[in-house]
Amino acid sequence: MVATTTEQLSALSNTTVVVHPLVLLSVADHHARSVPRGSSKRVVGILLGQDNGSTINVANSFGIPFEEDEKDSKTWFLDHNYIDGMWEMFKKVNARERMIGWYHTGPKLRASDQEINDLLKRYIARPVMVIVDVRPHTVGIPTDAYFAVEEIKDDGTETRKTFLHVPSAIEAEEAEEIGVEHLLRDIKDSTTTTLATRVAEQLASLRGLQSRLGDIQSYLVDVASGKMPLNHQISYHLQDALNLLPDLNDQELTQSFATTTNDEMLVVYLSSLLRAVIALHALVDNKASIGRAELEEGKTDKEKDKGKGAKGEEKGDKEKDSSKASSEDKGL
């Protein structure tokens, strides 16, 4: 089913695609086994799960044999018989999971995606396409979900098929969360603190925001230069986002920002002072405890020396007494 009317487009745009970690691991393993390092080839597979209307739950997947010419994107091969055989086996394992779409490792849209999507409509009435970015330095959520739609132009010319981007999310069940935690134990550094982890996560979020802003900038530059046509829906969303930005020319707003920043910096300053005082107190306390320990050791050493001297005197007196007694015996 290709969406054409405004109601269908709005219904598709409100659809959320939920991808499970098992699917991400399967796609990453498929790409690692099939594509050599340094190659720009992509892998293609089928997505399994449930289509609940407003939510599409992607719970499982399997890879399929796929080849395409890197120079000519319209030349590609996909094994239909393999899809039929794998689908028959998966139905025996879990009958609740249905074919709901397909994936590839992009990392961006390709010219042949529309043809592959039309081919998969033989198996799926409303296929969802998910692009999984398997590059190791990817920032943010590595999935992008799309539906095939027919774009109606404002000038009344012929419609053309395109892809509508829909929101996607990463969710996991309890069993998957346990498995992911076990995998992350070997990846994360256990010596890092919670604060360092939070700072690293915020830094990754800012890098993701920077990459998205870079994409918006490149799109606007292409539209201004005439390389890409103007999409009014994108311009409306950009206008809404810009309207949410604060007006920094307002004196009252800048004053409130400065007051809030100063209050936060005051808390940081007081925290630094407290940490310094606590560190000095611990240092002084440590020095005092070491001094007391040394004094106690000195006292015990003196007492031992006095004890040894008293024992020596007692031995000397005993020897004198014994010598006197022996001399008296000899005189007698």
Account of the protein in words:
It contains 8 helices and 10 strands. The protein has helices at 6-13, 21-34, 80-93, 113-120, 174-185, 194-225, 232-243, 251-331, and strands at residues 16-19, 44-51, 55-64, 66-68, 76-78, 98-104, 128-132, 143-151, 160-166, 168-170. The strands form 2 sheets. Strands 9-8-7-6-2-3-1-10 form an 8-stranded mixed β-sheet. It has a two-stranded antiparallel sheet with strand order 4-5. It is elongated. The mean pLDDT is 84.
Q: Average pLDDT value?
A: 84
**Outline:** elongated
Count of helical segments? 8
**What is the total tally of β strands?**
10
What is the helix content? 40-55%
Instruction: Tell me the β content.
Output: 15-25%
Strand order of the largest sheet: 9-8-7-6-2-3-1-10
Low-confidence stretches: none
Rg, alpha carbons: 38 Å
Order of helices and strands: HEHEEEEHEHEEEEHHHH
- Class based on secondary structure composition and strand pairing: alpha/beta
Q: Biggest sheet, open or closed, and with what strands and sense? A: 8 strands, mixed
Distance N to C terminus: 138 Å
Quick overview:
The chain is of the alpha/beta class and 332 residues long.
Task: Give short descriptive properties of this protein.
332 residues, 8-stranded mixed beta sheet, alpha/beta, 10 strands, elongated
What is the secondary structure topology, with strand pairs?
Layout: H1 6-13, E1 16-19, H2 21-34, E2 44-51, E3 55-64, E4 66-68, E5 76-78, H3 80-93, E6 98-104, H4 113-120, E7 128-132, E8 143-151, E9 160-166, E10 168-170, H5 174-185, H6 194-225, H7 232-243, H8 251-331
Parallel strand pairs: 1-3, 1-10, 6-7
Antiparallel strand pairs: 2-3, 2-6, 4-5, 7-8, 8-9
